[in-house]
Amino acid sequence: MNQILQDAPTDTLPADTSPTATISADSAPAEPSPPDDAPPAPSHPRFTKPQRVAFVQSAWHRDVVAECRHAFLDEIAARHIARDRVDIFEVPGSFEIPLHAQLLAKTRRYTAIVAAGLVVDGGIYRHEFVADTVIKALMDVQLRTEVPVFSAVLTPQQFHETQAHFDFFRKHFATKGIEVATACAETLLSLERLRSQVAAGII
């Protein structure tokens, strides 16, 4: 049975962590003070109601996908959704993400669900088929449940298990983590406004 994972830096994970094991949380290092001439941190609007997000990630190439999670958590915290308001779940591969997303959405515990995974060549399915199926299924979950679902499931055209490719995709997943956090927060704010207007009979 899948368990909620507590986020921790990748290098603190034991080498034999199983896909359903719980990851222990460590204390975050103190942030260095910005220099006096540093530009002010961007100001983001706050939510009217409490938000809770489920982050569902695949275990395939866990160390690469983890970069997305780390970047997501940093950015979503800057946008006023604290780390303890994000529950992290891990599944064997990207193909298993949609069913977990649907079950989580049906609990009504989460105001948003984020999916992250790396789909590459190999196995019994073509990677293009898997990625297309996952994206369509996640959209179906979103439309059926009205819980927004965001995807950072990536499908590189060419992926080789070399250090250069791993380094490139770690950086790429970090960028995608920021992008999906931005999309998540901005969509939740937009939905808050829209639902408020609908409730008030404005639209």
From TrEMBL:
Pfam families: DMRL_synthase. 5-amino-6-(D-ribitylamino)uracil binds at W60, S94, F95, E96, L118, V119, V120, S151. It is an enzyme of class 2 (transferase). Keywords: Riboflavin biosynthesis, Transferase. (2S)-2-hydroxy-3-oxobutyl phosphate binds at H165. GO terms for molecular function: 6,7-dimethyl-8-ribityllumazine synthase activity. It catalyses: (2S)-2-hydroxy-3-oxobutyl phosphate + 5-amino-6-(D-ribitylamino)uracil = 6,7-dimethyl-8-(1-D-ribityl)lumazine + phosphate + 2 H2O + H(+). Pathway: Cofactor biosynthesis; riboflavin biosynthesis; riboflavin from 2-hydroxy-3-oxobutyl phosphate and 5-amino-6-(D-ribitylamino)uracil: step 1/2. The active site is at R126. Residues 31-43 have a biased composition (Pro residues). Residues 1-47 are annotated as: Disordered. The keyword Transferase applies. InterPro entries: LS, LS/RS, LS/RS_sf. Gene3D superfamilies: Lumazine/riboflavin synthase. It comes from the Bacteria. Catalyzes the formation of 6,7-dimethyl-8-ribityllumazine by condensation of 5-amino-6-(D-ribitylamino)uracil with 3,4-dihydroxy-2-butanone 4-phosphate. This is the penultimate step in the biosynthesis of riboflavin. Belongs to the DMRL synthase family. This is 6,7-dimethyl-8-ribityllumazine synthase. It comes from Bradyrhizobium denitrificans. The gene is ribH.
